[in-house]
Design a protein that fits this description.
The protein is α+β, with helices and mostly antiparallel strands. The protein contains 28 helices and 28 strands. Strand 2 (about 60) and strand 3 (about 65-70) form a beta hairpin.
């Protein structure tokens, strides 16, 4: 958007200058953790800092050893810098045997494969962030990703935009006006941001371990590579540069063009990235094979940023609400100050933002785009070479000439900004930069290179600064109030991470309406690169495809691997008993009845023992009752209930002991859980009803209370159980009615596992849930101490995958392995 500069300066000269004061400034500082020898740390992110996924101020960037320290936006540069200083002091005081590396270029690096990628846990977002970084490593190399910098987030105030929109945006939508103005700023930053690299670049050298191939045009000094006139190797062809992205320039001419080009890059495959592949034996290699895996991969020195809400992407937010601020990404870390950036640099950037906004900013042509890239790279690699010439339109001119032109224009803006203060702070900054333009030896890159040459080593020089900064950061104790606040934020971030992981481990986005076992199966299938198609959502019926392998699966364990006859044998509890007994497997003594009359008349047969009465063709504990001896009325009631659910019932001897579910998959026991009926444990304060409500918050299937069962215990839901006492709420142990599952996979002896495998084999079942009552698992099996009460043809995975207590068993992996995936 072209601005009439003189008119703008005149308007600000009246009283509009006050609107320049309310701008917002935020910082993000990337910083490597190193050991006392300058080697990249291989330790995990310190737990004391909380979760890097959820902590608002302390996160990680590419590597697990690469801290990212973040400030909120402030209305002054000084306050943003002060906040960053406080975070750094907190970090420094809580690091063990490590330093914070004071340079954008890394110190001593291990081999590329040994550089640890940042870990964010097993939530959906955490895994996505990790895979994205894995992709960056394959695409550009992990060493390149260890380059660290400062990101400066900047926005003008709402009052500023209101003032300008009223003066120059008549007839234009305010949001569109602001976005177009920020894009004008961005275009000028791209054209002339090389000046910032010259003035503040601080990476003229790096440790030799950064390069796998000897770099051309750089000199070597022992274990150091350097450029004699380099200002920032990080911002050159040796640093954040992507040949692929250079071939696909993103337009900043207007927001629609920017979003179009970003979308193209997010949806267009590139052969270099296709060759990497999406999966290997260890999992996913990258998010996709597109030019950009995500918007974050766009390596631009400056980017438009929106305020995000919900789960929307940056592109969606930009389209919906426009540009909210800009992210300046080119500042190097200064080794001369502990924070990595000083107030002089920040104030320069602030003036430069205003300058870039008001300077005429035509669209960038393809030809100019190449010139912009060339100018930036030349300044980064040899910006202090007085013979260097840059291209501005048709003109060729020196760094000194063009730099002085820019600084002269910036000086007028600085004078306006200084009207808000009495110390001339912004004009002082410009004066210092003019001195650097006229004398390259005053630049940070020249100063640090001179020290490197004196010491003979980049790493030794940087390490000396790291030690000095660490001493300074630890010298003055952190305010207890601030330390406590950051500690609480760390704990809060860990809790939020845990909640995210619990939610995402249970609920799979896009498949929320499918049963939980099927969601678990789909989650693992997607990790393996298996294509999932939902055929029938109501029945959780899916199709899995990978290569030539196709399998249809219903409710996670109904597959082509089991025959219809196997299904029939397990569907009927009577037939199951018959087959098991033929194979010498213990089952409860009992009988099958086809009418209520016959069952009731046969009561004398069972009057002296406790019995289980159940329909022959139901699952999930439906219609099952337990009847004590010498209670004919309860027996009759249980018989009638069972016949409501089936025209055939079983009356069996009740086997004393604990109930275990063995999940047998393809001839192996994948998991075992102990099942106990729905229950609550008293705390001496809350009623049974309240305890149930609390426990249901963490249960997949809520507890269903049998009031009659409670009545037999002389209890109601309004009673308050004693602290530590366990109150059972139902007689059956099915998880579907709120029962608890306790993982015992590693606790049950192999003899019982063999019995379960034999039982599944007897009905030729590939997937089978074997329900076994065991009196005492520590005792070897005998005729009287165990019995199989049921075989299930559609065993739920969830009771093993999400046990109420104990270790999660990732049984969905065994399902997919058996299906040939």
């Amino acid at each position: 958007m072209p601005w009439p500069k003189k008119t703008i300066l005149d308007v600000f000269a009246d009283d509009g200058f006050r609107f320049l004061r309310g701008s917002l400034h935020g910082l993000e500082r990337e910083c490597l953790r190193v050991d006392y020898g300058g080697n990249l740390s291989l330790k995990p992110h310190p737990a004391i800092f909380g979760s890097p996924l959820c902590h608002p101020y302390i996160s990680t960037d590419f590597s697990e050893a690469q801290l990212e320290l973040i400030t909120p936006p402030f209305r002054s540069e000084r306050r943003a810098l002060s906040f960053l200083h406080d975070i750094e002091r907190y970090v420094a005081n809580n690091l063990d045997d490590e330093h914070l590396w004071p340079s954008s270029a890394p110190g001593l690096l291990p081999s590329d494969d040994d550089i640890p990628i940042a870990r964010y846990g097993v939530s959906r977002l955490g895994e996505k962030k990790e895979v994205y970084r894995r992709g960056l490593g394959y695409r550009y190399g992990r060493k390149m990703q260890t380059l660290s910098g400062i990101h400066y987030n900047f926005s003008f105030s709402d009052d500023f935009w209101g003032f300008l929109h009223t003066s120059y945006g008549k007839g234009l939508d305010r949001t569109g006006f602001i976005s177009a103005s920020y894009l004008a700023l961005i275009r000028n930053f791209l054209r002339e941001g090389w000046l910032s690299t010259y003035l503040f670049g601080a990476t003229p050298a790096t440790d030799a371990s950064f390069f796998d191939v000897t770099p051309s045009s750089l000199q070597r000094l022992g274990g150091t590579y350097y450029g004699e006139h380099a200002t920032s190797l990080r911002m050159s062809r040796y640093g954040y540069y992507s040949k692929v992205q250079a071939q696909k320039a993103i337009s900043f001419d207007d927001l629609s063009g920017y979003l179009r080009d970003i979308n193209d890059a997010l949806t267009t495959s590139h052969q270099d990235f296709k060759d990497i592949g999406l999966y290997d034996e260890s999992g996913r290699r990258q998010l996709n094979d597109y030019i950009l895996q995500s918007e974050a991969e766009h390596y631009s020195r400056i980017r438009p940023k929106p305020h995000l809400t919900g789960g929307e992407s940056a592109s969606e937010a930009l389209k919906n609400r426009g540009i909210a601020y800009v992210e300046v990404r080119n500042p190097d870390i200064s080794p001369f100050v502990a924070e990595g950036i000083d107030i002089e640099h920040l104030r320069f950037l602030h003036i430069f933002m205003v300058y870039c906004l008001f300077k005429e900013s035509p669209p960038i042509s393809c030809c100019e785009q190449k010139t912009i890239v060339s100018n930036q790279d030349n300044v980064a690699v040899r910006g202090r070479d007085i013979t260097l010439r840059l291209h501005r339109g048709k003109d060729t001119l020196s760094v000194e000439k063009w730099g002085c032109d820019i600084l002269d224009d910036m000086e007028a803006i600085a004078a306006l900004m200084d009207k808000n203060y009495s110390d001339g702070r912004y004009c002082k900054v410009i004066k210092k930069q003019k001195a650097k333009i006229l004398n390259p030896s005053l630049t940070p890159s020249a100063r640090i290179l001179e020290e490197i040459k004196d010491s003979g080593s980049f790493t030794d020089t940087a390490l000396s600064y790291a030690e000095r900064h660490m001493e300074d950061l630890k010298e003055k104790p952190l305010l207890p109030r601030l330390s406590l606040k950051l500690s609480k934020l760390a704990q809060k971030s860990l809790q939020k991470k845990k909640e995210l992981e619990m939610h995402d481990d249970l609920i799979l986005k896009g498949y929320e309406d499918l049963e939980v076992s099927t969601q678990a199966l789909i989650r693992e299938a997607l990790k393996r690169g298996i294509t999932v198609e939902v055929i029938d959502r109501k029945d959780s019926f899916i199709k899995l495809t990978k290569g030539d392998t196709i399998e249809y699966v219903k409710q996670a364990t109904k597959t082509s691997k089991d025959s219809l006859m196997s299904y029939f044998l397990m569907e009927s509890k009577a037939m199951t008993k018959h087959v098991l007994e033929e194979n010498g497997i213990n089952t409860p003594a009992g009988a099958v009845y086809h009418s209520p009359k016959d069952a009731i008349e046969d009561y004398d047969r069972f009057s002296s023992i406790k019995v289980a009465i159940k329909p022959n063709f139901t699952n999930y504990g439906i219609g099952i009752s337990f009847c004590s001896h010498n209670d004919p009325k309860l027996y009759e009631k249980a018989v009638l209930l069972a016949f409501k659910h089936s025209d055939e019932i079983l009356v069996e001897e009740f086997i004393e002991g604990d109930e275990y579910r063995f999940l047998v998959i393809d001839g192996n026991v994948s998991a075992i859980c102990k099942r106990i009926p729905a229950n609550v444990v008293g705390d001496g304060i809350h009623t049974i009803k309240q305890l149930i409500r609390t426990k249901n918050k963490d249960k997949i299937y809520p507890i269903r209370t049998e009031k009659t069962f409670l009545a037999k215990q002389d209890l109601t839901v309004d009673d308050i159980p004693k602290k530590g006492s366990q109150t059972f709420l139902r007689s059956n142990s099915n998880v579907s009615t709120g029962g608890d599952s306790i993982d015992t996979t590693d606790d049950i002896p192999i003899h019982y596992k063999d019995i379960a495998i034999t039982a599944a084999h007897s009905v030729d079942a590939t997937f089978c849930g074997v329900d076994m009552i065991i009196a005492n698992p520590s005792q070897p099996p005998s005729k009287n101490n165990h019995s199989i009460i049921e075989l299930n043809f559609n065993p739920a995975l969830l009771i093993h995958r999400y046990p109420t207590f104990g270790k999660k068993q990732y049984v969905e992996k065994d399902v997919l392995n058996t299906l040939g995936f």
